[in-house]
Structures are given as C-alpha cells and as structure tokens.
User: Which sequence fits this backbone?
C-alpha cells in the first residue's frame, strides 16, 4: 500500500533511511548512519510529495517528488524489501506526479560510488547528464552524479 506520509511515520522513515543508507554507502561513507535520525525525518515527512510504501502494516520504503524542481528528491527502499518492485512502484508514482506538474524531464542525483541505485536508475531510463554536484555531508565528501529521463 502506498500513501502520503504523516508525522507518525517519522521513526519508521528514519529507520528505512538508516538501513538503506548503511547498505548502500557504508563501504565509502563509514558509519554516518549508525543511528536513525528521527528528528530530521519528523520535519521532512510533511513536505509536499512525500509518500511511504507499507507491507503488512510496516513502512518499507519512501519517496518524494519535488514538483517545483522536477526532481525525484528521495527514493529509499529497506534492504529487506529490495527486489520486490517497491522501488519501481514508488519511482513510477513520483514520475507521474512530475509529469502531472508539467515537467517534460525528470532529474535526480545519487552518489557516484552508489552503484546499486545507479544501475536501478539506468535500467529505468535515466541517463547521466555529465553534471556532478560536489558537497560535504556529515563530514564526508560526496560527488553526486545528475541523471535525467524524459517524461513522455
């Protein structure tokens, strides 16, 4: 079941973020997500376009469409849920929202060493634009590759 996120989802969303982040990033970012950051997610789950996916009453994934920027702002799937189509379902819903908001192209970014998600996005039709955003997050240097995909 997919639904709009509510403040009551903050702890579950923080848990999914921490587990998915550790699985994807620990080899190059270390233990930056050792503990779920509930306070951060309590503020974010009410942002426009934020949805959660549940399986048997438990939040297993979340995503957010940034309809103003035309971006897939967030897409995280619990490692135990990966490979079941949940990420693809949420990505499809986010792309539908961006299309309905009038965007002809969807954009997103992910860390260049984040190989699993990069393969997923490429399989879903996203192509690297050649743009890179370099930034620091929790004291670690990131190089985030931008991707784009037409919304025809």
Assistant:
């Amino acid at each position: 079941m997919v639904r709009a996120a509510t403040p009551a989802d903050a702890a579950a969303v923080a848990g999914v973020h921490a587990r998915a982040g550790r699985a994807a990033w620990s080899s190059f970012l270390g233990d930056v997500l050792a503990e779920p950051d509930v306070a951060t997610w309590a503020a974010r789950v009410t942002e426009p376009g934020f949805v959660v996916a549940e399986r048997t009453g438990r939040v297993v994934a979340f995503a957010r469409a940034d309809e103003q920027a035309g971006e897939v702002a967030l897409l995280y799937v619990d490692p135990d849920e990966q490979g079941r189509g949940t990420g693809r379902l949420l990505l499809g819903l986010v792309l539908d929202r961006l299309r309905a908001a009038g965007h002809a192209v969807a954009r997103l970014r992910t860390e260049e060493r984040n190989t699993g998600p990069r393969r997923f996005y490429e399989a879903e039709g996203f192509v690297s634009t050649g743009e890179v955003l370099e930034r620091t997050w929790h004291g670690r240097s990131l190089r985030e590759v931008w991707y784009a995909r037409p919304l025809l």
